[in-house]
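Bench notes, afternoon.
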Amino acid sequence: MNKKKHSEYKKHLETEAGKFRLTPEDLSNLTDLGLMIPAWFIKCVLKPNKIDKWFWKFFDKIERITLSELNSRDKK
């Protein structure tokens, strides 16, 4: 991908991301999905592709929203 196409693609992603909204059900489903991912998948697929850290950061953000007891435990 050349530089011009890459910049057009990034602009397209930013435009589309601005339209993206999650419902409470979406957030709950993302939490469930994250909990269903087996450890072997993280170890054998995400880690070699270097997206395991991104996954944990993303999952932590979702958990903080959907599992409110985590927030109350952190504040104590």
